[in-house]
Design a protein that fits this description.
The complex is a heterodimer of chains A (about 230) and B (about 750).
Chain A: E1 2-7, H1 14-24, E2 28-33, E3 44-47, H2 67-77, E4 81-85, H3 87-94, E5 101-103, E6 111-119, E7 135-142, E8 146-148, H4 151-159, E9 163-168, E10 187-191, E11 197-200, H5 218-228
Parallel strand pairs in A: 1-2, 1-3, 3-4, 4-11
Antiparallel strand pairs in A: 5-8, 6-7, 6-9, 9-10, 10-11
Chain B: H1 3-6, H2 14-19, H3 24-34, H4 40-49, H5 52-55, H6 60-63, E1 73-75, E2 82-87, E3 90-98, H7 100-105, H8 107-123, E4 128-138, H9 144-164, E5 168-175, E6 184-194, E7 209-214, H10 224-227, H11 248-262, E8 267-272, H12 277-289, E9 292-296, H13 309-314, E10 320-325, H14 330-339, E11 343-351, E12 355-360, E13 363-369, H15 370-375, H16 389-394, H17 407-415, H18 424-427, E14 438-440, E15 447-450, E16 457-463, H19 466-471, H20 473-490, E17 494-503, H21 510-530, E18 534-540, E19 544-545, E20 548-549, E21 553-562, E22 579-583, H22 594-600, H23 612-627, E23 633-636, H24 641-651, E24 657-661, H25 667-672, E25 679-683, H26 685-697, E26 702-708, E27 712-717, E28 720-726, H27 727-742
Parallel strand pairs in B: 4-5, 9-12, 17-18, 24-27
Antiparallel strand pairs in B: 1-2, 2-3, 3-6, 4-6, 7-10, 7-11, 8-10, 9-11, 12-13, 14-15, 15-16, 16-21, 17-21, 19-20, 22-25, 22-26, 23-25, 24-26, 27-28
The chains are: A alpha/beta (about 230), B alpha+beta (about 750).
Chain lengths: ~230, ~750
């Protein structure tokens, strides 16, 4: 397995994702520069969090027109595994690899905190180590994480089991109080129809080591690793 | 017509010099140094360089008294930031700096550019910023003005730090009426740098090119340093154009480009453009190296047409750097900045004549001797005198204080006090986790970050109780240092060095100068006793609006190291049925306390006694005990006294406690005294004996006060229940006090 972390100007979780893949999961990992098209033979791509191109115009909008993105889209359309975290999720909706859009948080403020998520789809290459309905804790840190999709789109997402994570209470209820940013149907992460592209607002790379007090995010990277090795 | 004349600058006289902030005798000194009358560009440069903000003219002679040497010190004051050794080659580079005036005029941009400035100070030295903190002081949250300022300041810090990608891991927020029209915004940043990769502000090697990189120069912030060196008046609103505008995205690119550049051997020296912009950076580099520089100002990338040399030299546009490259490597340097889409231009060269010479279209439009203007800047030994209010405060007699029967309500009122209540509304707007190093998140005594290349961790705490400093500046100065040290030690880390940000009123008033001199004396004594030298800092005078000064506020940020970051302690009870030990002796000191202010609406008395010896022992004990993994948690006793400290420990994990005393003292004094050198530690039964042995070994007074149990906070004295509250009720108040005001 070889992983690639895309670096846009303004990416700031690129090193964190690289660190988890390379030093925690011990996967061969490279950075992919936004001005290049070469994917260097990777079979897993991470679009990291941050403020690509300063979030000017609209979060993820300029990144979706970068040179590397053409290659990422092609890679995804051929079934390659792509994980977009936070700003990476915003880039994925801007490229239309994933449906919907991420709007400004309901309270119009940046929010950084641990949130509970209920895992609703464990049949993706990213979530095989979770159990259906499992409640996990992963931090969010964003200004624009309010997921929006129209009713028709939402029904399609639900029908196709594309919703992977929902914000929930400690006991798993997905009521409004457990929704940090106003997302439609408490959605925190979705996959595309084929299941090879995952976008999520929470940051699994921030909870993948014992010293940080939480390992819940580790399983996403580990799931990808095992999936690519053909282990599961 | 000469080039200079084409700008139609007025002739320089005393009136113009005064308008720019120079005093008559300073203008005379300038003429003496130059041997002639300066022209308009030159007088602008001189007035900025000699502003209080840039020259430290009122503080210099006193700052010299602070200890700056120590085993761990790699770089003391005088550079962009201080550097200490953490683990072998791995060093921490840090500094705190004020951005008070701009944050009042334009809270969002003022605070944002304060963060930007301090980050640049750190990465200019070759260090990648890994942690930011800030120390904020506002008026009380009972009026729209303060709410608006706080909302803007916090959003500004968040907007800049989050986008840049540095975690804001902690800080402090203090509220008092005295900051209503003069909030304090002190921004701190810490970076990691290898010892052999430290860069300094040098301009050496005749003929070496001077390269400008980063954002284009605009008309923002012109004379910002001068503005920061005056009192505020009602028309400060009109100074809005003096506040700079920040672009964190540009700064992030500048960081990555600079660090990439610094991996190579292409550059000699580098300096950021902060206060007084190109003026400070060019003069500092030339003066430190004893060289000179030529700058071709028409080559400077500008944001708009028609900018003049005067404006270019004094602009405080953000996200700009000046560097001296090795001759022959210009193309390599330019290539790296082009890669990161940054403006870059060769704008001058190093000379050896000791002058800063400015050119426009080939003609020299100004020339000034670098070293004389930097080093012979005016220095004042301003008169100082003890203010009369001090004696009035001392006449307070604690025993005459009205007794309060319902102490549960007192405790609730203290937890509801904005100074004590949870700062969650603030810190959840900051990305405190990016870079995945944050081991202890905001809300504990100290923030702790790991270093990925080392077993060690870095602990940070920012402290100052301005009320103590007001009633007794000398004690207050000492207590700011010891509290910061104690907080760092509570995590298990050894305090190593400090950076300080000294916020005071108008130094031309002898009473203010007295506060300053006393506070520094206190600080010095504490630094010497704890062996924590000052490695960097900043002075901010003229924190007065319409003649009314703020409390003397010498903010201290202590940096410490923990040998094994896995042993880090937090300040919340960890398990049921463990022992609660109170370490340190209570002297039942209620003067200048939060209790006095909140429950009796009084600011009176004296600050608590400074116990340097006891503090040192407590710190050494904490480092030793945490290293042996003997403690579950630890929290120092500070504002609000024992009862508040105890309550704070119960909240996170909702673990209650029962403690009993047997003391002949008023109940309120027992609960809320702010005697120093004290802490509460949580110890399992298994470790109790070993902890007691260790406490005795360090000669510490202690008392096993109770156990962790239940979902309530219960405190008895002589068998009587004096506090009995439910944790959830207390926590609700604690969590909502600030949030409720801000929504």
């Amino acid at each position: 397995m070889k992983a690639g972390v895309v670096v846009f100007p303004g990416s700031n979780c690129d090193h964190d994702c690289y660190h988890v893949l390379k030093h925690v999961l011990e996967v061969d990992t490279v950075f992919l520069w936004h001005k290049e098209r070469d994917l260097k033979g990777v079979d897993f791509i991470v679009l990291p969090g941050g403020f690509s191109y300063g979030d000017y115009l609209r979060c993820g909008a300029i990144a979706s027109h970068s040179e590397i993105i053409d290659s990422v889209v092609e890679f995804a359309e051929k079934g390659g595994l792509v994980l977009g975290i936070c700003n990476g999720f915003q880039v994925l909706t801007e490229t239309r690899l994933l449906p919907g859009a991420l709007l400004r948080n309901r309270d119009l403020k940046f929010i950084c905190k641990n949130v509970n998520l209920v895992v609703s789809n464990v049949n993706t290459p990213f979530t095989r180590f979770y159990t259906p309905g499992e409640i996990i804790k992963i931090p969010i840190a964003h200004m624009d994480g309010n997921y929006f999709i129209d009713e028709k789109g939402l029904n399609e997402l639900i029908e196709n089991e594309q919703v992977v994570f929902r914000y929930c209470s400690e006991t798993g209820e997905t009521f409004d109080d457990a929704n940090p940013n106003g997302s439609v149907d408490n959605i925190a992460g979705i996959v595309n129809k084929k299941g090879n592209v995952l976008g999520m607002m929470p940051h699994p790379e921030r909870c993948a080591e014992e010293i940080l007090g939480n390992m819940d995010g580790f399983h996403i990277f580990n799931s990808v690793k095992k999936y690519l090795k053909g282990g599961i | 017509m000469s080039v200079y004349n084409s700008f139609n600058y007025p002739d320089v006289d005393e009136k113009i010099a005064k308008e720019m902030g120079l005093k008559t005798e300073e203008y005379e000194l300038a003429k003496k140094i130059l041997g002639r009358n300066p022209n308009y560009i030159e007088i602008g440069i001189i007035s900025s360089m000699w502003s209080e903000h840039c020259s430290y003219k009122s503080s210099k002679i006193h700052l010299k008294k602070l200890p700056t040497q120590g085993k761990c010190v790699v770089q003391g004051p005088g550079e962009n930031a201080g550097i200490i050794e953490i683990d072998g080659d791995i060093c921490a580079c840090f500094k705190v700096e004020s951005h008070n005036h701009p944050s009042y005029i334009e809270p969002y941009q003022g605070a944002a550019t304060g963060v930007g400035g301090i980050l640049r100070d750190v990465f200019t030295m070759g260090a990648r910023p890994v942690a930011a903190m800030n120390s904020l002081r506002f008026g009380t949250l009972d009026n729209d003005e303060t709410i608006k300022i706080m909302d803007g300041v916090v959003a500004g810090i968040a907007g800049y730090g989050n986008c840049f990608g540095v975690p804001t891991v902690g800080g402090e927020v203090f509220f008092d009426e005295c900051y209503q029209k003069n909030p304090l915004v002190n921004a701190f940043a810490l970076g990691i740098v290898k010892k052999d990769k430290i860069f300094l502000a040098k301009a050496e090697g005749v003929g070496n090119p001077i390269i400008y990189v980063g954002a284009k120069t605009g008309r923002d912030g012109i004379h910002g340093a001068t503005m920061a060196s005056e009192e505020f008046s009602a028309d400060s609103e009109s100074k809005r154009p003096n506040v700079q505008i920040g672009d964190p995205f540009k700064e992030k690119l500048l960081l990555e480009a600079c660090l990439e550049l610094m991996k190579n051997e292409y550059i000699i020296g580098i300096q950021d453009m902060g206060a007084a912009g190109l003026t400070s950076s060019s003069f500092e580099m030339a003066s430190k190296s004893g060289s000179g520089v030529k700058l071709y100002l028409d080559k400077v990338p500008v944001r708009e047409k028609g900018m003049t040399p005067y404006e270019i030299m004094l602009s405080e546009s953000q996200e700009r750097m000046l560097m001296v490259a090795k001759k022959g490597f210009e193309e390599k340097v330019i290539e790296i900045f082009k890669k990161w889409d940054l403006d870059v231009a060769i704008i001058g060269e190093v000379t050896d004549d000791g002058f800063v010479r400015l050119f426009w279209n080939g003609e020299e439009v100004a020339f000034l001797p670098a070293d004389p203007l930097s080093n012979n800047a005016p220095v004042y030994d301003r008169p100082y005198k003890k203010p009369e209010y001090i004696e009035d405060l001392r006449s307070f007699s604690p025993l005459k204080l009205k007794k309060i029967d319902d102490l549960n309500t007192c405790l609730f009122n203290l937890l509801n006090s904005q100074n004590i209540a949870s700062k969650r509304w603030v810190f959840e707007q900051y990305d405190y986790m990016v870079r995945t190093n944050t081991v202890v998140i905001p809300g504990s005594d100290a923030a702790v970050i790991r270093i990925k290349e080392s077993r060690k961790g870095i602990a940070l705490s920012s402290d100052c109780n301005p009320r103590y400093c007001y009633v007794n500046p000398k004690k207050g100065g000492s207590l700011a240092v010891v509290e910061a040290a104690r907080n760092v030690a509570m995590s298990g880390a050894k305090p190593l060095a400090i950076t300080n940000c000294l916020n005071f009123g108008n130094p031309e008033k002898p009473e203010i100068m007295w506060q300053f001199v006393e506070a520094l004396e206190g600080m010095k004594e504490a630094c010497l006793a704890l062996d924590t030298p000052v490695v960097s800092g900043n002075v901010s005078f003229y924190n007065e609006t319409e003649g009314k000064g703020v409390y003397p506020t010498p903010t201290i940020v202590m940096v410490g190291a923990i040998d094994d970051v896995k042993n880090t302690l937090k300040s919340s009870f960890k398990s049921f049925n463990s022992h609660i030990i109170v370490v340190g002796k209570d002297k039942y000191e209620i003067g200048a306390s939060e209790y006095l202010k909140v429950c009796h609406n009084l600011v009176a008395g004296d600050a608590p006694e400074v116990e340097l010896d006891a503090e040192k022992k407590l710190i050494d004990f904490m480092v030793d005990a945490s290293g042996r993994k003997l403690l579950n948690s630890a929290h120092d006793i500070s504002e609000g006294g024992f009862a508040v400290a105890l309550a704070e420990m119960t909240f996170e994990n909702e673990i209650g406690c029962e403690v009993s005393f047997n003391e002949d003292v008023r109940d309120d004094f027992l609960l809320f005294s702010e005697s120093q050198a004290r802490a509460i530690i949580e110890v399992s039964s298994l470790n109790l004996e070993k902890v007691e042995e260790l406490l005795k070994k360090y000669g510490l007074f202690y008392m096993i006060a109770g156990k962790t149990v239940g979902n309530f906070i219960s405190i008895r004295n002589k068998g009587r229940k004096i506090i009995d509250v439910n944790i959830l009720a207390a926590k609700y108040i604690y969590e909502n006090a600030i949030k409720g005001k801000m929504q």
